[in-house]
Amino acid sequence: MAHISSSVYTSHIPAIGAALDLGKTHEAYWQRVFQGYEFSKQWMKEHKPDVIFLVFNDHATAFSLDMIPTFAIGTAAEFKPADEGWGPRPVPKVIGHPELASHIAQSVIQQDFDLTIVNKMDVDHGLTVPLSLLCGQPQAWPCPVIPFAVNVVQYPVPSGQRCFNLGQAIRRAVESFDEDLNVQIWGTGGMSHQLQGPRAGLINKEFDSAFLDQLIADPAALAQKPHIDYVREAGSEGIELVMWLIARGAMADVAGGKPPRMAHRFYHVPASNTAVGHLILENT
After folding, report:
1. How far apart are CA 68 and CA 76, in angstroms?
2. Mind telling me the catalytic residues?
3. Residue 100 domain boundaries
4. What's the pLDDT tens digit per position in 6-26?
5. In this predicted model, what pLDDT tens digit does every residue of 34-89 receive, in sequence order?
6. Which long-range contacts (CB under 8 A, 24 or more apart) does 74-78 make?
7. Which is it for strands 116-118 and 71-74: parallel, antiparallel or unpaired?
8. Domain count, the chain
9. Entry pTM
């Protein structure tokens, strides 16, 4: 059967994609950011999965304010990079895995989670920047990717507990797929940042560090953190961190297995007025 081997967590800051695409990675401002992913790029080569299940949020490209699904799974055979106002990123198209995606949709919906099934969708920086950070600038991404979009843009947004429970349902869905596949689950977005209003530019290192600590050691307790805590402590866009709880909920220890092994942890500020957080956990 298929199994989840590891989970990856990372910010998906659009300026990181621009720095990569414009050849600015060696500039003094960006060097420390990209150095934090050197380990991860090598790790990815050594732990290449058969499929990546990538949790991200759309930034009003695939979904406008006319229609905003809370949870949407991409079941198409391929997904093109989105034009976010300055042209699509010069990155490969994303090859999907319709069979596994459809199976996950069937299983998770039968576990009483409502998913929107998306057969056509362009994917923005929320998905392509994480792939670039861990896979570099290849002619093609190393494996199929299942995009899973979460609404953390327009309130009401899902709770951390709902996301954590959903991750558990996704793990059960993957494990009930009868093909032998090595699946990684990625949670993206965050960390603390606010892009508008009087607190624009807010970064809370203490909150971010505590979040990473608890995500590793006690995710069940972290899942109970209310929305208002994210907004107060991590800024209006800090709510993106609930998506990390989907990936964490899919790990084996949540279902009674052994604690995961932390392969890598990285944190840096600033990067385009936000905090960069990154973590790799391996099932043992």
Report:
1. 19
2. 125, 193
3. 3-282
4. 999 999 999 999 999 999 999
5. 999 999 999 999 999 999 999 999 999 999 889 999 999 999 999 999 999 989 99
6. 74/101, 74/118, 74/121, 74/123, 74/146, 74/147, 74/148, 74/149, 75/101, 75/102, 75/105, 75/117, 75/118, 75/119, 76/118, 76/119, 76/120, 76/121
7. parallel
8. 1
9. 0.97
